[in-house]
Each structure stands twice: as structure tokens, then as C-alpha cells.
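WARN retry 2 of 3 for item q-0093 after timeout on previous attempt; input resubmitted unchanged.
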Amino acid sequence: MAVTIKKVSTKRELKRFIRFNYELYKGNAYSVPDLYDDMLNTFNKKKNAAFEFCEADYFLAYKDGKTVGRVAAIINHKANQAWGKKDVRFGWIDFTDDSEVSDALIRAVEQWGKERGMTDIVGPLGFTDMDAEGMLIEGYDQLSTMATTYNYPYYPQHMERMGFVKDSDWVEFKIYIPDGIPDKHKRIADIIQRKYNLQIKKYTSAKKIAAEYGQAIFKLINEAYSQLYGYSSLSQRQIDQYVKMYLPILDLRMVTLITDQSGELIAVGISMPSLSEALQKAHGRLLPFGWYYLLKALFFKRRAKMLDLLLVAVKPEYQNKGVNALLFTDLIPVYQQLGFEYAESNPEMELNGKVQAQWEYFKTEQHKRRRAFRKVIGDK
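OK item q-0093 returned
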């Protein structure tokens, strides 16, 4: 039977689009499902602030009457303008190990992009950097994280067969929590703090941190990440959305802010207990009992051994000066107190030496790699 591609146009089809990933990876020990409600909001043009500068459609693949694949076609107009590109992105791609299926899905995105004047197809990418990026090409026997996606080893083989080439790689590290703060690390932190008169800020109230530095945190992220691959700056509506969405659920012991002598935010480190196992137990659902597993992972005394380093951002003029050492000099004792054994770095650009240098005093293991692929689809 031939593969049929259908654009998602109903709530029922959107549900099928989201749930296909859960079905394809059911029982897989390493895949971590997204929360269904989060995905509904992500794909909703009224609720996702990224649609201020993005357009998208979603496609399902059918064969023999069964759903066999899915893909999102996305154009981030802000990123294209910033980087001088005419890229159509493919994201949230999943398919059975069938060349007819992968070919049909990619053709649908290519055609969609060509109709809108795009010259290249690139991905996997989401609407913005706040969505999962890259296709796993190493580390298939490693547990995924809340911020990333898992895929079977046959995925990149299909991409290469279809003529895609490497556009960018991200690497991920397992960083073991030391018994004590490394001496050199602590010396650097002390020197930097005195030299620039920096202050460490900690909060116990989500409302207070949101009121005093919520906006500044995400504006700093815009500034610090501006030169990273394909980055598009967060809009004011996105910043408002993320302040409201994320700050209330954080364990603020694991959030460290650094300010200069005038009180301006120059660095932030945000981490949280890993939700990977909790999300697996919840099967992507808050109800009926998914909320219990997530709350247990976030706030109960017995936590996962792994923590996620969600965000580390340093103002550009302070990068490569040891400010990261000051962040982690504050955070490491917290990690020790809470009983974590190692941290997941989440994806870092392969060539981002500034970021990777911050781990040089720790025992680390580069255990995953993921890739964005690119292919020309039209005249430039």
C-alpha cells in the first residue's frame, strides 16, 4: 500500500499526532514522553507565543490504515531574518523503519516550504531554542531528558539516505557531583567575585524572584544565546509566558543568580531534579496519577539521582572569565545536600568551547550527541 500524507486539521488528528510518539516508543527504556497537555499548548497557535513570528502545519503519514509517521513543518521568520536564511524546519519527526514513510514525510515538508519561498530544509528543530533540537546520533542506550527527544538508531540513516548532511552537532555530558568543590574552581570563584564585586542572590519565594528578576532572566538568555545556532530572540510575550510557566515549579535552592554591584543580572544557573523517570511513569499524562510522580520527583525527599542543568547563561562581557565557577561554587553544596550523584548538561554546541570549559575540573562523560541536518530544496 502507498503512504498517504494528511495535514492535521482537527483536534482528533492533533491528538493522534501527539500520541504517535508515545505509541512508537511504548516500553522503550530510554525515551521520555512529553506531557500531553504541554504539547497541546505548544501546537496551539493561540497559546504558543512563538506563533507571533512562526508559521507551521503538522502532517501524519498513514499506511495500510495505520498511522506510521508524523512531522511538523515550521518557518521561524525571525530566525531566518536574523541569520539570512530561507529555511523550512522539520520538527517532531517520528516514523517507522520504512523508507517510503520517511520519504513521504520529508517531501511534504519540502513542498510546504517551497510553496512559501524556502530554499533549504533543516532539522529536527522546533519553533525556537526552547523546544527540543537535534536528532540523536550517539547514546541510544542513555536515558533521555525532559528537554530533549529520543529516537531510534535508524532515523539518521534515513536522513543520510535522503541526501541530508550535517549542519550542526550538539554534545551532552554526564557531570559527576564531586565530594567537595574542586580547589582550583573555588579559587577562581573567589578571585572573580572580589575582582568584579559580584553578588550571589538566592530566593525562597517564586513570586519574589519573578517580580525582581523574572524578566531579567530571560532577557539575559536572549543576550547570552544570541550567537548560538539558529537562535531567535524571545519576544516579550514569550518571556511573560515562560516567567509564568517555569519559575513557580522550580526548587529555588537550585537556582542561583549573580549580579554586579549595581544589582544588574549578569549570570543565572537554573537546575532541577530529573523528571525523566517520573514522566515515563506518568506516560505523558497528568491525570489520573501522573501529577503524583512529577510532584514526588520535584519536591519529595527521595529524589532521582540525576539532575538536569536546564539553563546556564552569562552576560557576554563576563563569559570566559570564571563567572561559571562562581555559579557552581554556590550550587554544588546544594546538589550534595539533596543527594544527587550526577548532572545532565543537556545539549551544548559541539564547538562551544566556552561552555564546555566550565566542566574541566569535574569528572565528566560525553555520552550523547545529536545532529541538525540540512538539504537544499530550491534555488537561492
